[in-house]
Amino acid sequence: MKTKQNTMKKATIKQVFLLIKPHMFFVVLSFLLAILTVVLTLYVPVLTGKAIDYIMAAGNVDFENLLAILKQLGIMILITAAAQWFMNLCNNHITYQVVKEIRIRAFSHLEELPLKYIDSKQHGDILSRIVSDVDQFSDGLLMGFTQLFSGVITIIGTLFFMLSVNVSITLVVVLLTPVSLFVASFIAKRTFSMFHKQSETRGKLTSLTDEMVGNEKIIQAFGYEKRAQERFDVINKQLQECSVKAIFFSSITNPATRFVNGLVYAGVAITGALLAINRRLSVGQISCFLSYANQYTKPFNEISGVVTELQNAFACAERVFELMAEPAQTPDAPNAHVLSHAQGNVDLDHVAFSYTPEQKLITDLNLHVKPGQRIAIVGPTGCGKSTLINLLMRFYDVKNGVIRVDNTPVMEMTRNSLRENFGMVLQETWLKSGTIRENICYGKPDATEEEVIAAAKAAHAHSFIKRMPDGYDTIISEDGGNLSQGQKQLLCISRVMLTLPPMLILDEATSSIDTRTEIRIQKAFEEMMKGRTSFIVAHRLSTIKEADMILVMKDGDIIEQGSHEELLLKNGFYAALYNSQFAST
To answer: Cβ distance 461 to 480 under 8 Å?
Structure first.
């Protein structure tokens, strides 16, 4: 297990370095500025020690040399401040460019992932990886660049300056150094797995919160509040436990390194005092060494903190890279056919498909649809109606068999061109945050005002849109939260009315609309479906009487097919379904 974790950690660090590589100019510049800052900072105690030695006693002060030292100190402080400012600019540039690139790559890869991955993962967890985990990573990376370079250079530089002053005291400092290294190593080994667990649990909590917020009406309608709270409490407690462990070990850093600081400081003070008594060291040099003792041990505090924060950062980065490492959907072949304007021939030959290998769904589906035909698909829940739509649109690819559009296998044509030839109106509406016009124009951004209005009128949405505060420029919230379900559905229908592709998929498209509007929409659909191959998924069988062919599905297979009258005469499964809906009429 540990070997696997170490391998994953090394791979994560390698990927981070690959992302930093294009910004090496700023990395080198930051490193050089860190050296300059540290050297100037470390030279200050030397000047301070000399200044103390120039103050011999009352009435015996070398003001001329003191003034020269003060001038040097002023110049160095100004240069140090400027160098630190530019170094921070470089560090910010590196960090946020890397984070920007990670987010762009992660979101772009998300767009390329197969629908199978999206359907099988909690959406809140995916959101947490792209937003929260990347934020945590940026915080750690920025701290690393800001404090790691300076800390390491300070340690090396302090040792060099101390050696130039006195070797004996420097040896005391060096002998106590392994204690700090042990503390840093001890903390680093224990925090990575804890922070990784914390990130995973945070993702679960985000996912649950996203689910509860999105379905608050249903939660309240079914009195699910208590159980939702219980689920939240369980995950929140898990997050609390793993966070406390991670924070506990990371919080050891400060007291542990402060203890080491005290040891080093005491060692320097005692050794320096003994040397001063024997007149081998001046008071100014003791003051210089005590300053160096503080400056030498301070980076160990910072580096230990940075190491802890980097563990968290790399744990979060690992989750993001896991998402980015997920296999993308099979790309279109280089010579893939572009379906420009489909005639509407659709053929399914011996199609087999299942979402999971152990649970079969469609085993041997055959269907031949001619241009302009209206195909209604009916059957009990879970029979494969929506799956058939997913296969037609290539949201999923068939396991066996072939689907052809205009005699060309869909696997041999580009996904975009295939989907451009289908218009979909689903039972579940989807609207984006923006104006009503932008939502209608989603599939045709360059549509004219006249085209948009004509589409809205055809969908019987124009009248309610005109009653909105700003008409077509009215801003609607995410997923159309300030519209009724029926109004959202009308906007989705308007979207298809605007593009009018050669093939249509209507999945309970009028389920959220009142009866009077449904009659009007059905008439609009009648006009829209003329000359277009249409697949109509319906539960209310009264809406599909006029279909050219009705497919009755059960357990993934077509068990009956024919017109409404033909299927009623068969007195089979369809007739039983139909009669069960209209038994009282």
So the answer is: no
Two tokens, residue 314: 């790399």
What pLDDT is attached to residue 585?
44
The residue with tokens 């947490």 is 128
Are 539 and 380 a contacting pair, CB within 8 Å?
Answer: no
The span from the CA of 250 to the CA of 304, in Å, is 9
Average pLDDT, the chain: 80
Beta strands in 379-474 (DSSP E): 400-405, 408-409, 422-425, 434-435
Give residue 225's identity as a one-letter amino acid code. E
CB hemisphere CA count around 75 (13 angstroms): 8
Every domain of the chain and the residues it spans: 20-325, 374-381+419-581
* DSSP summary character for residue 355: S
pLDDT tier, 581 (very low <50, low <70, confident <90, very high otherwise): low
Q: What SS3 state is found at 533?
A: strand
Q: What is the second-level CATH architecture of the domain 20-325? A: Up-down Bundle (1.20)
- Count of alpha carbons within 13 Å of 408, Cβ hemisphere only? 18
Q: Are 303 and 152 in contact (CB under 8 A)?
A: yes
Q: Would you state the pLDDT for residue 82? A: 92
Angle among Cα 156, 147, 46 to the nearest 5 degrees reads 45
Tell me the per-residue pLDDT of 187-232, one tens digit each, with 9 for 90 and over: 666 676 777 778 788 878 887 887 787 777 677 777 788 888 888 8
The Cα–Cα gap between 143 and 360 comes to 52
pTM of this structure: 0.67
Q: Which of 89, 108, 101 is nearest to 134 (CA)?
A: 101
Domain 374-381+419-581 classified CATH 3.30.450.40?
no
Higher pLDDT, 311 or 328: 328
